[in-house]
Structures are given as C-alpha cells and as structure tokens.
Amino acid sequence: MEGSTAPEDATPVADTMVERAPVQPNVPDLLRVSPMETSTATDVETSILDPAVKSDSFCRFVFLNKGILHSHSKVTFAVNTDANERFFPLGIGVASLVQRAALKIGTKTIQEIDGYNYLTAYKSMFVSNEHQLEREQVQSGRVIAHEFRYDDSGDTTGGADNNTKAFTYGLSNGREYNGNVGATKDLTTPDWADLAGNPVFQIALADLFPMLKQTQLPLYMMREQVSVELTFDPVAKNRVCNRSGVATSTPTINTDELKLIADYIYYPQEMMDAYAQQNNTISITHFDYRHSKLSVSATSTSGTTQIRNLGGAGRIVTKVITGLQADSASDASILNQFHSISPEAHYQFGEAPAAGKQNGSLTVNLKYNDRFLYPMDVTNPARQFHNTAQAEGMVPFVTREEFCAEGVALTSDTFEGYAQNTGDGGDEKGILGRFNWLAYRLNRNERVNSRGIEYFFKYEGLDNDGGSYTQRSWLELAKTTTISGGYASSVFM
Mind listing the pLDDT tens digit for each residue in 436-484? Predict the structure, then answer.
C-alpha cells in the first residue's frame, strides 16, 4: 500500500537522537533539550559575536569555548535596499538570504545544508497559522498565515452578507485589507517590516542546524574551534520581493547587522566538571541533508516517465524531499523562487473545464535496493499529501489550492498588488499551487545499495510556455558525531 508502515520486526534507525555513556544518578544530562529531573541553578551569559569574516557572499562566526551553547541562540540579518517597497519572500522570510549553512568543529563539518533557503520553504508548511502570525512574522519575516475573507460576497450595498459569510480565505498579517466594499482589496506589509526601513530579522541556530533541536553543544568540553559558516544566495533578485509595479532592486547584505547572539548556559561548576569527567566520549546521532538539483522542461517531463538518481549509495536514508521551481519566478511575486509548483488545474468543482483542457497530474515513485517504495505509482494528489504528512509526522498547514491548485476558495484579493489566487498557468506571482512539496519516508531501515535512490516522476499539465524548471531534492541521512577528549569526528551511519 502507498505509505505502508515498516514491518513489526523492523528496528528504527535512531529512536534516540542523542546517545552517550550513562551518567551517574546525581549528575543530570546537561545537553539534552528537555526538562531536567533535578532542579538546579542555571546561569546564562549572552555574548554578541561579530563575524570573523564577512562580505556580501559569506560570513563566519567563531564561538568561545565556554559553557553550553543554547540551541536557540540567534543570527541577525538585514539588507540594504532602495526606498521602494520591498519585503522578504513570505514563505521563508529572511532565510531567503542563506544558500548554505555549515556547522564545524575544527576542520570537520558536523552538519551542512545546501539549498537551505529552498528547504526552508518546505519546512514552512509545518509551522502553524498562529506561530506564523504571532512569532515568525516578527522574528524572521516569514508569514503564510491565513484568515477567512468576509467581504467577498459581491454585495456592494454593504448588506449583512458582507459581515456573516466567508466565501473565501486569504493571507493574513494582522492588518486590514485596503479597498472598498465589493472591490478587490489589497493587503500590504506593515511599515516596520518594509525593507526600505532596514529592519533586522533573525534565525535561530536550531533552525539553521536541526541537530541542535535535540542536543546542545558542550563548548566548555571542546579543544577545537567551533564555527558557523553561512553562504549567501549570489542572485540578488532572489533575496527579496518587490511590490507590484516597482522596479527590481539589487539588495546587498547589511554586514553591520550580521551578529550572532550566543547564549552560554552555566550550571554549578562541580556539576559541569562531574559531567565532563563521566562523559569523556559523547556520541550524538542526528540527521544531515544532501541537496541535488536538475533542470527540466514542461516537454521533457511529460509523456514519458523520467528516472533521476538522487544518490544515497551506502547510506542510511530516512526521508526524501522533492520540489519543482519555475525558473521564470522572480522578485515580482509573493514567494519569489522559493516555491514548489504543481501541475495546472483547469477544472474546478461546479465549473466547466477550459476548452480542450483537462487537469494536469504528477505521477511519482521511488526505487531503492531493487524495490519500489510504493507498489503502484502515486498520482492522486490526496495520496501525495498524505505521504508527505506521514514522512514528516504531522499535517502541513497548507490548503488544497496551495498544494495542488484545486479548489475555488482562495481569494482574488491581492498582497502587495499580486493576486493571491494565481500561481499556475504561467503566472508565478501568487500562492495557487505553489506549495506542492513532496516527502517520502523510507521505512525499511536498510542501507541503500550501490545503485542509490531512483526517483520516477512524470508531470502532465505544466505550463508549456517554453520556460525551464529546476527540480530539487534532499536526502535525509543518518549521521553520528562523536566528541572524545575534546576532539570531534563525524561519520555517516
């Protein structure tokens, strides 16, 4: 069956994200991100670190080897732009700046994510409406929250229908839509978030490096330099979005605002000394990501099933994430390049299909170790949505229109001048069909053989305007990092 679970006798790859030698009962696990069984005094020291190296393309931060690094320490960002209205792509916010993030101990790369800004677009689907609106909008500039629209009834007299019936839904950032009753209304960016004012946003280290969601680094036990390296997206127009009708800008990184706000945790010295003595060797099991991409066209992906090798040979791969971007997308849009496009949907419930057209389709499957993940190729978008939710362990906070362009409930009202119910059919400006990210859980708990993982896919109904597309994928790989005697090593499982 599609999305079948692992056999009962299968052994999980890593039930515990952090593995280390047991500590004595009187010494709690100081590194685990969870409440301690023992109540103890804790001090937190905050340092604001400037980059050791900084430019418009790259920066490096170096930690002091003291205390325990708090996983939610923050990196701050800002951009230099002109006076015209600009905003960060709504799906990822300030993460649009970061193309690659690497965490290093000495010369060893512990965790590295290439295509970080695109992967964040997938991760954003699993952030709740409330967190998008109340937290992410202020912290990272990311907001894909939704609200019901009560003024789309077409009643220009201002009757009761306008106040009691919600025929559509649309984006929400806490502001009122501008416009008259019965007319198209526009939602705009708050003044404090307008990039012309050089606002400063931030990303938590645990969001840059997911391994830190499970464990905190004992910097005081390290004898090597611990550093964070960030490579910025070299294409300036990918970094921001512009209001409709506003000329393209060339934003640059505001290097004066590049800071790492590092929180160092301290427990009583005797407790930290006892922990270090009893845990000379610490083994951390976590995941790393390997990114690859392929240029395709609407013609090359239709008619015949394409087979793409995603790699992963000799590794334990727990998850595969894929998405398709329209290369024609630009800063004249809501999401810029950071989307995953679905096939076109020409037929909607209650409406006649467009003349001579039918809904497009996406057919997918994976093959590894000489067996297909699904016994039958998956074409139904509902099954694809289910498989994505199963792979992530939670349901994405996106609607059917956003996922596969089917439905008629998405409002025609605009955000910064762009109609929200556009996105397919060659129009890359809105959010219709722009969250078609797919994920697959590899549930056999097997090491991938030398053939690697093969991705079978066929798109029917992509907009055939002669434009090109980029298909991206990430493999989630099991990895073990060992800290012994203050020195680190990291190997794939």
Answer: 999 999 977 789 999 999 999 999 888 755 578 999 999 999 999 999 9
Amino acid letter, residue 34? S
Cα distances from 219 to residues 113, 139, 216, in angstroms, run 22, 26, 9
Q: Can you give the C-alpha Rg of the chain in angstroms?
A: 24
* Whole-number Å distance between alpha carbons of 405 and 7: 35
CATH superfamily membership of 42-492: Adenovirus Type 2 Hexon, domain 4 (2.70.9.10)
Task: Confirm if 428 and 328 have CB atoms less than 8 A apart.
Answer: yes
| CA–CA separation, 413 and 63 (whole Å) | 47
Per DSSP bridges, beta strands 201-204 and 418-419 are unpaired
Counting every residue written for the chain, the total comes to: 493
Which distant-in-sequence residues (6+ apart) come within 8 Å of 252 by Cβ? 56, 79, 80, 236
- When pLDDT is averaged across residues 313-330 and rounded to a whole number, the result is 92
CB 402 within 8 A of CB 172: no
Separation CA 432–CA 443 (nearest Å): 31
pLDDT digits (tens, 9 = 90+) for 258-268: 999 999 999 98
Buried b (16+ CB within 10 A) or exposed e, 187-220: bbbeeebbbeeebebbbbbbbbbbbbbbbbbbbb
Distance CA 348, CA 406 (A): 7
Q: pLDDT tens, 14-58? A: 444 445 544 444 566 777 666 666 667 789 999 999 999 999 999
CA 297/CA 304 separation, integer angstroms: 13
pLDDT of residue 133: 92
Contact at 8 Å (CB) between 85 and 242?
A: yes
- Cα distance between residue 281 and residue 229, in whole Å: 26
Residue 145 pairs with which residues in a beta bridge? 172
Among 111, 319, 334, 121, smallest CA distance to 233 is for: 121
Among 230, 72, 215, 49, which Cα is nearest to 139's? 72
Q: What is d(CA 253, CA 142) in angstroms, rounded to the nearest whole number? A: 18
| Domain range list for the chain | 42-492
Written as one string, the DSSP assignment of 221-259 is G-SS-EEEEEEE-S-GGGS-EE-TTPPP---EE-GGG-E
DSSP bridge pairs for 46: 263
